[in-house]
Design goal:
Tetracycline Repressor, domain 2, mainly alpha
Length: 180
């Protein structure tokens, strides 16, 4: 009877998630992951003969982590602030999720309609009393602004200043409300 693998698929995914979180998505190779886990590449390649599958499952784990983090905020403003704070606290995960080329060629509307965004759109719909289509159009300018702040912060191009960011988001939201 063949020996049961001691490095499980779940352990490899968890290790890949931790590696990306600590060192960045550029480091996610079988050799780097093996060194990180303290094993040879054999158990990794046995569980994942295709590294693209491992990267995809790692992405899904990071996305679930990110979604749980931002949706712990109450209202739409808090969700936006948590999205930006995530970029400050987890810059490597943020870059993996949003700046690793996964969404290359998509429009902002495509990104907003992606399944990963469903929880945020539901919050927008229920908080504002909007139909799903209305939620998409009202959410689009705020999403661009929030993601812009987060991207600048994740890439050390802007200092994280929660008070200034909160004021900026409120000012833009109020301006959008007046426009309607």
């Amino acid at each position: 009877m063949p020996k049961k693998p001691t490095t499980t698929k779940e352990a490899v995914i968890e290790g890949a998630f931790r590696l990306v979180r600590e060192k960045g998505h550029e480091c996610l190779t079988a050799r780097n992951l093996a060194a990180f886990l303290g094993c040879s590449t054999q158990p990794i390649m046995y569980q994942f003969p295709n590294m693209d599958l491992l990267k995809d499952l790692t992405y899904r784990k990071a996305d679930a982590f990110h979604s749980a983090y931002i949706l712990a905020g109450g209202d739409l403003l808090e969700i936006g602030l948590r999205y930006i704070r995530f970029a400050e606290e987890e810059p490597r995960l943020f870059r993996f999720l949003f700046q690793s080329g996964r969404f290359s060629g998509l429009s902002l509307e495509d990104l907003i309609r992606a399944p990963e965004t469903a929880g945020v759109l539901d919050a927008v719909s229920s908080e504002e009393g909007l139909a799903p289509e209305e939620a998409v159009s009202s959410f689009e300018p705020l999403a661009a602004l929030v993601h812009g702040y987060a991207s600048l912060i994740a890439n050390n191009a802007m200092k994280y200043d929660p008070d200034a960011i909160r004021k900026g988001l409120i000012m833009i939201a109020e301006g959008l409300e007046r426009k309607e």
